[in-house]
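Suppose you are handed a protein chain with no further information: no name, no annotation, nothing but its sequence. What can you learn? This example shows the usual starting point.
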Amino acid sequence: MKAIGITEYGGPEALELLDLPEPQAGDGEVRIRVHAAAVNPTDTLIRSGTRRQAGIAAPYVPGMDAAGIIDQVGPGVDTRLAVGMPVVTIVVPSGTHGAYAEKIVVPAASVVPAPRGADLVEASTLLMNAMTARLAVDALELSAGDVAAVTGAAGAFGGYAIQLAKADGLRVIADSKPEDKALVTTFGADEVVERGPDVAARIRAVVPAGVPGLADGALLNGLAVPAIADGGRLVTVREWEGPAERGIIIRSVRVRHSATDTQGLERLVRQAELGVLTLRVAQVLPATAAAQAHRLLEAGGIRGRLVLDFTDFA
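A reasonable first move is to predict its three-dimensional structure. Written in structure tokens, the prediction is:
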């Protein structure tokens, strides 16, 4: 079986074609013939070694988002899933287990039918970023009518965070470059301020007392803290722990802990079908161009998700 992965940490050029044993679905698992895999920042961090110690002993296959067709169902899987069904899944990479592969085996609990009305390329951009956004909005612990701020609002996480916050009845202040203001407004942001290291002051200009919660998709960390009201919450997606002050609570979210939340994944699919969540594909590249996709993502400015096409990969 073919896959794209690394045998040592490095730049995008470290990604190479691998020949791996074909995986078999075990108890409570399904095998998916991958059609599309989204490229996420976590993929580039692990490839470069930022997320791990140097010196991999075995090949590593990145990728957390996949869409494809079930081609094998293991024992103990209920009738919710069947061979031939188009599905999406969150993959928790480990060694050669990652989404950049011809076939993947995942827990049935991590697999849900693909959104109706979307093709598999579009569908592959949904779950990892949308579930991360869902966890972040939940961690803000706000009530309908409260104000939430979202940084990195034009990105995949930021767009979903705005849309989910609005669906929960929150008022949203978001940041963007001037050229992205119209895009961020289409996500439902009530106020859009210019992004940058001084964004906290601009948020305070809109809400002088500070916002009770901020989802930090831009990874501003301490630079975002002044935007938050006393006793408010900052939610980060990169495990920043502070320090903060004024009783501000910092929470980090990791999507791997919700990869088997089947009901939560199904809810995100329904919201995509209803148009609550917008599936955004920035560019589609063949799987063999994974290195190019990593270069594009690391260069910045991507709006939506880069997607690797595995349909001609076998």
